[in-house]
Amino acid sequence: MGGIREQKKQQTRRAIETAAIDLFSRKGFDATSMDDIASAAGVGKATIYGYFPAKDDIFLHYCDDRLVTAFNQFKEQQSADISFVEYLIAFFMIKFASITENREFGRLLLREMLFPREATDKVRDHNQRYFDILEGVFSVAEKRGEILPDLDHFMLSGHFFSLYVGLLAGWYGCYFNQLEEVEQNMRTLFEQVCHGIKP
Amino acid sequence: MGGIREQKKQQTRRAIETAAIDLFSRKGFDATSMDDIASAAGVGKATIYGYFPAKDDIFLHYCDDRLVTAFNQFKEQQSADISFVEYLIAFFMIKFASITENREFGRLLLREMLFPREATDKVRDHNQRYFDILEGVFSVAEKRGEILPDLDHFMLSGHFFSLYVGLLAGWYGCYFNQLEEVEQNMRTLFEQVCHGIKP
DNA sequence: AGGTAAACTCGACTCAGTTCGAGATTTATC
DNA sequence: GATAAATCTCGAACTGAGTCGAGTTTACCT
């Protein structure tokens, strides 16, 4: 039934996640020990492992949630009356801002999602969310005549996604530091894809 | 001068690197402990830290070397009489094959190089090697009239580099498993950049 | 040759993530 | 309501990366 146990579990889980994210944000991921998290959350260290398989997973889970939230907000507020390029820029910039809001979180998330130890469902689902959206965008763009009719939408999604990843790598390599720069470069790159670079 | 000491150092260093790479290859990176490496190399654990700042650096150094070697081979055997697209494909495929030869090594190298803890000189140098070459390619292509004359070569380099990184991420996410597939997709993506996707 | 300083080596230690297993708490069964 | 079964909890132990500092070797100088 309802269950005292179930209720307590949710509570404990939330306490651990909250404590962990708070500490990670304030002290950094590496500087926060599992003992720190345990005492902040008021549980034993081993208890944490009943809820999260590893230290990484605590905030990976959290990051993923935040990314989904950011995207849902975006979907609501986004008008459909703009060119697909503007739409893509808005879409990727939301993601970009969300993922780099905390530099360290973003770095760890990207490492795990783009170059995973093994291709788990978690990773595939995460990526699939992007691709579903992007393929939708290109279907619309095709109907509107904004792009050539015989293009592979999966390939196109991969193309724009790659550029987004490249910009993230540029960010983490300190090739740029301002979101404005990122957007400017993103626009240039996207235009390049649109118009081609050959005479 | 010449030095018994210097000679021994080189010998020790090589012993450590050889033992480490051998163990990493056979047992995997995580499953190999520093103690394992130390006893295989016939030195004390702490000695390793006199040669390499951390476990990662042992094979990061090795990977980087291999990448440089692969590139030098490439430069020698590559004809200049092919289109810049074919040149880029050959270039990136060499890199791709070299970096994914050992799946785990490549993964760790990419994580470290693309999303580094902090942008160290090592990382910048590593990336700069790519960009120098790419910018050179585009200069030639521009002179030959293969690309439009007013393009930013740095941006172009970033564009193709991003596509390469995207393909790597696809590889690690198991979207493809054969080098032939990678090359095929790479060609499609590169053609997309050349001709544009707009009507 | 002998002495000294610098460089090298490594056993022992610390520190943090993860696992174990025994005891406590809740739920299910009769 | 008692008892068994399942689940949850956490102190203690384990593991492996990285550090420390004392002991050893080598290079250089006079």
UniProtKB/TrEMBL annotation, chains A, B:
- Location of the HTH tetR-type domain: 10-70
Q: Species name for this entry?
A: Pelovirga terrestris
Task: Specify the protein name.
Answer: TetR/AcrR family transcriptional regulator
| Pfam families hit by this protein | TetR_N
Q: Which ranges does the entry annotate as DNA-binding region?
A: 33-52
- SUPFAM superfamilies (alphabetical): Homeodomain-like, Tetracyclin repressor-like, C-terminal domain
Keywords annotated in UniProt: DNA-binding, Transcription, Transcription regulation
Give GO MF terms, alphabetically: DNA-binding transcription factor activity; transcription cis-regulatory region binding
